[in-house]
Amino acid sequence: MKDQSGDAHNIADLREIARRRLPKGLFEFVDRGSEDEVALRNNRSAFEKIKLKPRNLIDVSGRTQQVTLFGKQHKMPLIIAPTGSAGLMWHEGEIQLARAAAAAGIPCTLATGSMTAMEKVMEQAGGTLWFQLYMWPDRSLSHKLIERARVAGYEALVVTVDGAAPGNREYNLRNGFTIPFSFTRRNVTDVVTHPGWLLGVLAKYMLTTGMPRYENYPTELKNKITAAPMGRSMMRNDTLTWDDLRVLRKLWPHTLMVKGILHPQDAILAADCGADGIIVSNHGGRNLDSSPAPIDVLPEVADAVGNRITVLIDSGFRRGSDVVKALALGAKAVMVGRPTLYGTAAGGEAGAARAIGIFRDEINRVMALLGCRSIGELGLNSLILPESAGGHAAGNPKAALRLLDSARAAAES
Ligand SMILES: Cc1cc2nc3c(=O)[nH]c(=O)nc-3n(C[C@H](O)[C@H](O)[C@H](O)COP(=O)(O)O)c2cc1C
């Protein structure tokens, strides 16, 4: 397939290219949310309620997006979220995506459910790679998997905790898209009417490694998996508790993060269990449909843990200004899921690089227009918040203190 990402001026353009290229069932699997897609829409509209308050006549010519996460410097406050489906956007798309992340100097998170084996991604892409874990009912298999990730050289473990039950995504059932992929009467027309994807992605797998499947699964599970609608075949676990996290803390010697936190009490519990970071996330609006937009709960979650752990966020970020708003509200960096999947579908490594580049340019422009020279300068004094963002200083002493702190930092700089 040819790289078409050069035609894209923003993430919405990349999405449109992906929509044209991918079979409808696959595009919907990536693009849509759960049930009535309230959370999906709200993830976007929440950003519109937050305004940026610029300062002028500051020399911003030397501005930088560098951030330090868990003691390591990165070129931008952006991280590739785990999605497990980059390998269906492009042949071995996980490698393409991870290479783009490495070239951009940002971390990339490989999902348990990816189609390319973790060792191969490490070998062929390198860079800062994190591994995302879904726990299986048989904990010992999950523990073996994280040992595999440790041996392969993954620097951090991201444990996803918002999947006690699979999200209700009815379109996957209607579209008949399954993993391992299997031809059904329903999806065959969809696939043959997208010959670029059929020949450029599916046929390449079939001629080399066979039908795409979950390459990180242990043989015991791989053999047991029968084709299930995408998103329902992960064998998710509804018995996971904080005790499991304590065990993981003992087993995993490097950075440990918990993904899918929306409640301040859970943020505190994650810190108490020894996690180094959390990802405030509603899974991109794909699981609990009436969950809040992560950006709306970020201030109270960040206040709850203070400096104890690193707070990251994802869900709905499509513009550099969205990223800047989250950083000003206390996140250290932002994860993106769909934007780089659209990019990978539009042009493999070049397309993923285009998506990252769009964020880089947009963040750069917003920083200049805000009068901001470094990420550390961003704070509540750069924002005008609606009451619903939870960080309004009136009646919120912690937010008021943070506002004073950031005003003081701005005055001193
Ligand atoms: C197609 C797709 C597959 C996903 N698979 C996983 C997964 O395997 N594990 C996980 O923790 N999150 C998964 N997610 C959620 C993302 O990690 C992330 O939370 C979400 O995409 C962020 O929202 P955004 O897509 O609006 O950036 C997936 C998201 C998408 C779009």
Task: Describe the 3D structure.
With 413 residues, the chain is of the alpha/beta class. The chain contains 17 helices and 14 strands. Strands 4-13-12-11-10-7-6-5 form an eight-stranded parallel sheet. The protein has a two-stranded antiparallel sheet with strand order 1-14. Strands 2-3 form a two-stranded antiparallel ribbon. Strand 2 and strand 3 form a beta hairpin. The longest helix is centred in the last third of the chain and has 33 residues. It binds flavin mononucleotide (FMN).
Largest sheet descriptor: 8 strands, parallel
- Note the overall shape: globular
β-strand percent reads 5-15%
Bound molecules: flavin mononucleotide
Which structural category do the helix and sheet elements fall into? Answer: alpha/beta
How far apart are the termini? 49 Å
Write the layout of secondary structure elements.
Elements: H1 11-21, H2 24-31, H3 38-48, E1 51-52, E2 67-69, E3 72-74, E4 78-80, H4 86-89, H5 93-104, E5 108-110, H6 118-124, E6 129-133, H7 139-152, E7 156-160, H8 170-175, E8 178-179, H9 185-192, H10 195-208, H11 219-224, E9 228-229, H12 242-251, E10 255-261, H13 264-272, E11 277-280, H14 294-305, E12 310-313, H15 320-328, E13 333-336, H16 338-370, E14 383-384, H17 397-412
Parallel strand pairs: 4-13, 5-6, 6-7, 7-10, 10-11, 11-12, 12-13
Antiparallel strand pairs: 1-14, 2-3, 8-9
Helix pairs in contact: 1-16, 5-6, 5-16, 13-14, 15-16
The structure holds flavin mononucleotide.
